[in-house]
């Protein structure tokens, strides 16, 4: 028997379709008890939340390219031992600039760092404060045309455009706090920024215009939100073409192609493999080591129309670096991410949905800077963080 509590069931669909359906059915039904209304609500949910467009395409590993290969080679190391070039975040985000320099964002820090194409520290962008040229907590920073930097400040609720010299070109208020990551399309920004209000909960992607105004919310065909399911509202984002984006579910092997202009799903690519099971709730007792799980960390489309997917998977020796929970700790901790997780990278031809090549790295890679460039964090002998950039080379006959 399945029991569902009506006070914790939360869902939302565009235009309140479920609510209208429930109200209509309630008026027709003589029975007004809670169980009947719950069943009606679930029925209406199924009727009204089916995707209006798009379709699922199965990515297959059958009959891969026999003479294709994917190699992973260390390329550059970024980060200083102390000073303004020290990396202060366990997973900083990286954007490439026109001259090959690297813009590094340590989420929720007030300033950004620029490293040259040769991996030397160059300069700091911004300063701490609440003034016109200042920031408090930059959650997301994107490089735009002319090396302009577009920042989204969580503390100040502000979108700001900065020129290459660091001066503010313009700024606009935003109505919610940016959270995880974002992408810039031809006409919009799309942020993975769940908003936990009655009208927006369950829609993890927020589409903004160039003045930071919310245009629409999207990112889920059902609008269902379950706080007990890990990573249910987290997405890895990448630009596709025009105003379309790639939105990869971190908790399952599903990648959606979404039109930011309409908010509709164009197509979804899904893969069913034993080593990546969808995220589930999992409460463990105090003292148990944190259990590893697969997580989709990033996605990119290259110039050939190939889809690159990056997945963190458990390292075979993960137990050796797991630290036991303390009473009241619901997450546990890991001593070394690179010893806890490996990375699987798969490349698919979108025309045939067929696997071209795959490779596994003993490092935990968490971001594509470009389709052929990825990032991991490696501590040095003194414990300082270093950003290791690796080159990905796809070889085909």
Architecture blueprint of SSEs:
Layout: H1 17-28, H2 34-48, E1 56-58, E2 69-78, E3 93-96, E4 102-105, E5 112-115, E6 121-125, E7 138-143, E8 149-153, E9 158-162, E10 168-173, E11 181-184, E12 189-192, E13 205-208, E14 214-218, E15 235-239, E16 244-249, E17 254-259, E18 265-270, E19 295-301, E20 306-314, E21 322-323, E22 333-334, H3 337-340, E23 341-349, E24 354-361, E25 367-370, E26 373-379, E27 385-395
Helix pairs in contact: 1-2
What features would you describe in this structure?
With 397 residues, the protein is mainly beta. The protein has helices at residues 17-28, 34-48, 337-340; strands at 56-58, 69-78, 93-96, 102-105, 112-115, 121-125, 138-143, 149-153, 158-162, 168-173, 181-184, 189-192, 205-208, 214-218, 235-239, 244-249, 254-259, 265-270, 295-301, 306-314, 322-323, 333-334, 341-349, 354-361, 367-370, 373-379, 385-395. A 5-stranded mixed sheet has the order 1-18-17-16-15, with no helix packed on it. Helix 1 (17-28) crosses helix 2. It starts with 16 loop residues before the first helix and ends with a strand.
| Rg | 22 Å
Summarize the main sheet.
5 strands, mixed
Morphology call = globular
> First CA to last CA: what distance?
55 Å
The tally of helices reads 3
- Kindly report the spatial arrangement of strands forming the biggest sheet: 1-18-17-16-15
Order of helices and strands: HHEEEEEEEEEEEEEEEEEEEEEEHEEEEE
Structural class: mainly beta
